[in-house]
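Record filed here:
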Amino acid sequence: MKHLQKINSFTHFFDLLPGNEKIIVDVLRQIILETLPQSCKEKLAYNVPYFYGSKRICLIWPASVPRGGIKKGVLLGFCYGYKLKDEDNYLIHGTNKQVYYKIFQSAEEIDEAAIKKLLKEAILLDGI
C-alpha cells in the first residue's frame, strides 16, 4: 500500500493491507468497536481508521500506510494518551507529546484486557 491513493471505505482500506497487518488490524478494531459506546464513530482520516467520541479517541495505523512513522507492525495510538493514567505502563511515550501508542508485530501480542482498560479511561476523558 505504498502508494498515496485516497481510501474511501474501511473495506477498501482492509483489502489493501498485507496479510499479517490485516489480522492485527481486525483484532484491534474488534476490541475498539466492542468497547466504545454506540455513540462513537469510526472514520478514515489520513487513510487509517480513527475512532471519535466528542473528539478523537484512538487510531489504528499499519506500517504499510505511508506517513505513520513505523517501519513494521501496526500501531494503536491513543490521541490524548498523555492525559491517560496508564497505570500498567502499557503505552509507549514516543516523540509525539500527545499520542501515546503500542506497536504490535503479531495478533498474539495484543493484550485485550489492557487495551479495554485504556479505552474505558479514554472514554471517560472524552466525556461521552
